[in-house]
């Protein structure tokens, strides 16, 4: 189980990080990394042995099945030689967008993101979360790392796109490893609340019924949902309703009144007001804008 206080890096995306190089080698006994200050990320993954690295006076000993993500602009060097043959992979990549640190327990995994539409011209801000240092699932990562190293050895225009795609896959796997470590009780309750609200989003919200199904006090359930999504149960239900309403406006010929009823609004006028307040345009205008792009 991961330490909830483990440090992670929060990278703003898009764009995704860009691959520079990747390699695989076995360091002999006595091998030791030289000192340098690097302007890019240097991801080190150890398959066998132990590699000793210091970054800005912070020492790390990276054992088998562990990784260290060295950050751009920081000085790093090997503070001790390898005492056994040490098999490592390294991946250098560049990412020019904002980078911040965050504790593992504070990553808002379930926070809802706005879905793009056909009339958006720029993407919304999103984040990629990567561990700074710690254990990883090498069995999941090795096929990707080996394929990256193989393609890099015979790099050509034919496989360049695949190599960059594999970097994204590797980073996604590292993030998935972080996500799988989430074990807090509040997160489990949050997921239960979301599932219940999604299963009957068109029905009137009933706090007592929610509490009875969860076997939790409704205030506690609401706090858990807010902690991980930033929304109250009622606000989350309205979010689901609006997303379904947008889908129906785009892909069906149902009238605005029928769609309002389908997503749980008894009053068509109230549905229109709520939609305009949430989405920024009326349902009719949203449908026309979408059709104008088809």
At the fourth level of CATH, the homologous superfamily of the largest domain is Regulatory protein AraC
Query: Order of helices and strands, N to C?
Result: EEEEEEEEEEEEHHHHHHHHH
Biggest β-sheet strands, sense, barrel: 5 strands, antiparallel
How many beta-strand segments? Answer: 12
- Mean of residue pLDDT values: 89
Ends: how far apart?
49 Å
How many H/I helical runs?
A: 9
And the CATH topology of the largest domain? Jelly Rolls
What CATH architecture of the largest domain do you see? Answer: Sandwich
Which descriptor suits the 3D outline?
A: elongated
InterPro entries: AraC-bd, Homeodomain-like_sf, HTH-like, HTH_AraC, HTH_AraC-typ_CS, Tscrpt_reg_AraC-type_HTH
Organism: Paenibacillus thalictri
Protein name: AraC family transcriptional regulator
GO molecular function, one term: sequence-specific DNA binding
General description of the model:
GO terms for molecular function: DNA-binding transcription factor activity; sequence-specific DNA binding. It comes from Paenibacillus thalictri. With 294 residues, this protein is α+β, with helices and mostly antiparallel strands. The chain has 2 domains: 7-180, Jelly Rolls; 185-292, Arc Repressor Mutant, subunit A, CATH 1.10.10.60. The protein contains 9 helices and 12 strands. Helix 3 crosses helix 5. It is elongated. The model has no long low-confidence stretch (mean pLDDT 89).
């Amino acid at each position: 189980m991961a330490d909830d206080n483990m440090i992670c890096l929060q990278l703003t995306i898009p764009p995704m990080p860009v691959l520079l190089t990747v390699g695989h080698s076995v360091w002999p006994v006595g091998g030791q990394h030289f000192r340098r200050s690097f302007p890019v990320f240097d991801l080190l993954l150890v398959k066998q042995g132990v590699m000793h690295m210091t970054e800005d006076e912070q020492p790390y000993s990276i054992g088998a099945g562990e990784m260290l993500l060295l950050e751009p602009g920081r000085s790093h060097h090997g503070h001790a030689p390898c005492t056994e043959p040490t098999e490592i992979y390294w991946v250098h990549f560049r990412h020019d967008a904002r980078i911040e640190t965050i504790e593992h327990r504070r990553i808002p995994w379930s926070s809802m993101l706005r879905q793009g539409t056909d009339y958006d011209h720029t993407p919304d801000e999103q984040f990629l979360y990567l561990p700074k240092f710690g254990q990883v699932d090498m069995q999941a990562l090795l096929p990707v790392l080996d394929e990256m190293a193989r393609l890099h050895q015979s790099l050509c225009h034919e496989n360049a796109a695949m190599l960059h795609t594999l970097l994204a896959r590797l980073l996604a796997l590292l993030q998935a490893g972080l996500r799988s470590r989430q074990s807090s009780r509040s997160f489990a309750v949050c997921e239960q609340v979301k599932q219940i609200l999604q299963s009957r989003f068109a029905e009137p919200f009933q706090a007592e019924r929610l509490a009875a199904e969860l076997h939790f006090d409704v205030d506690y359930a609401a706090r858990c949902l807010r902690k991980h999504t930033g929304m109250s149960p009622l606000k989350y239900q309205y979010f689901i309703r609006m997303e379904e309403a947008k889908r129906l406006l785009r892909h069906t010929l149902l009238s605005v009144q029928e769609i309002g009823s389908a997503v749980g609004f008894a009053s068509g006028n109230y549905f229109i007001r709520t939609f305009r307040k949430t989405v920024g345009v009326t349902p009719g205008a949203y449908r026309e804008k979408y059709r104008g792009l088809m």
